[in-house]
Records
---
Amino acid sequence: MALRFFNTFTKRIEEFTPIRPGEVRMYNCGPTVYDFAHIGNYRAYIFEDLLRRYLKYKGYKVTQVMNLTDIDDKSIRAAREQGIRLDQYTKTYKDAFFEDIDTLKIERAEHYPAATEHIPEMVEMIKRLLERGHAYRKDGSIYFQIKSFPNYGKLSGFDISQLKAGARIDADEYEKETASDFALWKAWDEEDGEVFWETELGKGRPGWHIECSAMSIKYLGQPFDIHTGGVDNIFPHHENEIAQSEGASGEKFANYWLHNAHLMVEGRKMAKSLGNCYTLKDLMGLGHNPLAVRHELLTTHYKQQLNFTFEGLSAALGALQRLWDFWRNLEGVTEETERGRAAPILERASAGFEDGLDDDLNISPALASIFDMVREVNSLIAEGQISKEEALETLNLMKRFDAVLGFIRPEESTIDEEIEALIERRNQARKDKDWAEADRVRDELLKKGIILEDTKQGTKWKRKLE
Ligand code: AMP
Ligand code: ZN
């Protein structure tokens, strides 16, 4: 069956047809690098990773662009408070972002353009908006005039008649109730300190929304196929992106708009004040396996609210263990005689996987098909009813699933060697009566989720299961 997506723009499930046959061009709103990304952000990036990987599985050549918002009100303020340059401030968070996405096995996009490196493209677009009567100057700043764009509100359902005449907004983030003309270019003021560009538009800096319009079109052309982000981006950010991009050129911006629902933690909204804005490193520090985090973030349909729980993380690890054990069981099959019993099981699994994901990335039936296969083939193995060749075919299918899901293949056992080496170091420290070092190593292992037990037979270790 054909691939279908729920398009926020048309509010319907639609069959996916790319603009250029065999190719997909996709833009995702990426991190604002003013702080470490939290697991809510990673829900968005993992949904986008699933989308990318499944499009590739379907045979498309994918060009994916994710921006890095390395300039906004908050990061400018924070850099000033710390007395460092904006680029020094944001570098920490950019680096951490790339480290995390690798750990979470999020495939790298083709482009990660940073806003501060695309000021000329933004200036060009703002000039066109001025020429075409969609923007105006006021006190050195330049604003987009919403009433000049009759389609404003089509994506989010915002009623343009509610617009307050003459109201303007400079802040990067604002609420629905205060929708109004928004800043494309902000004249420099003291709060910006050293952060400004001298351009044809004057001395200042761009607003937040214009960066996504300018950078998506630069790398993908206009129109492109898919634009995504979390639901919080629909209004005003994506509405503004459409107005800017279509206002500047008169052409359609993007064909399919996909939005992921938010993530809650233990039934509550994430909030700094609740101490539940977990980063990936926080969870790993508590001994959790990053692939269990990937599993938990991926296995709820992207349009459903996801309740992230520690119990769920343990269950995720159990599910991963079943997949990894199955993989190893398959590798251990040596039987030479063909039985012909595996083929129909694999066919069913493959069809179930694709039927699920074709249906707007419906992950639950896709996963259920994999686990049905695991159960059925495991019993064939137990009964000696599967040949080596059939086991290899099953492994090949598992590899195809892994290319989409990224957690099917067992983790390399080098982890075990690393643990053994650390235990050895601790034993040496104990012999040397260097208790501080011995404790440090024990804590380091605990952070990796390894619990030590000193017995008469020596030190034993086990994985913490939560
Ligand atoms: P930001 O760094 O805040 O600009 O957000 C980056 C991406 O994460 C955007 O696509 C957001 O919509 C998404 N996002 C932010 N918070 C959450 C959350 N709690 N759950 C899911 N996605 C989120
Ligand atoms: Zn954006």
---
Amino acid sequence: MTTSKGRYHIITFGCQMNKADSERMAGILEDMGFEWEIDPNNANLILYNTCSIRDNAEQKVYSYLGRQAKRKHEQPDLTLIVAGCVAQQEGESLLRRVPELDLVMGPQHANRLKDLLQQVFDGNQVVATDAVHIMEDITKPRRDSKVTSWVNVIYGCNERCTYCVVPNVRGVEQSRTPEAIRAEMEELGRQGYKEVTLLGQNIDAYGRDLPGATSEGRHLHTLTDLLYYVHDVPGIERIRFATSHPRYFTERLIKACAELPKVCEHFHIPFQSGDNEVLKRMSRGYTHEKYRRIIDTIRRYMPDASISADAIVGFPGETEEQFENTLKLVEEIGFDLVNTAAYSPRPLTPAAVWDEQLSEEVKSDRLQRLNHLINIKAYERSQRYHGRILSVLVEEQNTKDKAQVMGRTSGNRLTFFNGDITALQGKLVNVKITDIRAFSLTGEPVEVREVISV
Ligand code: SAH
Ligand code: SF4
Ligand code: F3S
């Protein structure tokens, strides 16, 4: 192992899971004596934490990698690492494509970075993509925010949506124990963090792989039980969770969210399509009627809850009429936010080899039409906040206007107001909303709430 201090840079693509993994890997590197370097060109260890969800995410990685691989010829002590979902998907073949790489490691190996690097420093080129049980890791992550934080609760995904690479690259479901999750949250509370987002690709599956069942045969550990169990962690003021799957979403969970004051009234429940035939061919396991019932139930318990989702347009064989059913769902539900994407065929997924692939023109036309409607509806949804006083947890300075700070409402709307970040970071501030946009708000501070820890 090198004894001289190295300088590292991490570039992260993809979802919150990857962001959480990057923070953990940064923690491991700092523990080993590496220091963060803001300019990748001055770093002697570069780690790309990659995403493979759509082809354009994957291609981005190759173009970045090409540049650094060239640099390695002039600077042989440069260590190049590809981690994350492209690493898992491509494995050995990444080395053939970019022979300058030192380490290719799948997401399940993130906690093992130290061991793997030791092998690299011993002179090996290493590929770590075998399926392993993810070990609890006690190294402190280097977190990007001082206020909000991610906590993994379940890794992997056992679903088989026909368009999706995630089960191939993230492996089978593996829940962390409630005790380990609570311990991490308690540590975050002690460090001054105010908000925790519990993470899982299909978070409603939490606990089904853990031993134990109640006398009614229900799993002993469900997401609902977990929320009750971690709710009183001192210092943590807000709890969020993502991503929810409509197939497993229960009324019991909705009740818990309504009952527990720290759980934010924000639900991220992807619907993917508003058409039953398409949903079936995606293997999603629910109908649009079931999806609507979930939203109705949420709104019955929490009329003001904010609802966000993901949707795909141009799935193989999707007709104009079927696409219009997606528009109809968006029109009728009124989402606060929807992340949209044109279908992208992915390696080793069933839908990628189906005959009825749609042209890029059709896909991008549908994407535009859907996004247009989503904007209109989100703007309509924002109207309800005008003139109201909302509680905003302050995160950062507004990078575009230094006189302002930026935070989020419980419903996850970005909110800006005039204030000094050094005084307000991590504070809950009551803000009167004066200006609304589709996805963000501006207001005036009314009162800084003294946070009373439980
Ligand atoms: N686990 C979550 C989503 C994970 S992936 C769920 O079940 O909803 C994040 C989003 O990427 C998905 O919700 C989907 O909208 C999109 N996505 C996944 N695979 C895709 C593909 N092949 N083409 C386009 N979008 C895709
Ligand atoms: Fe992919 Fe479906 Fe699993 Fe979500 S639930 S990660 S879309 S396979
Ligand atoms: Fe991408 Fe992997 Fe997340 S494919 S979306 S980084 S699970």
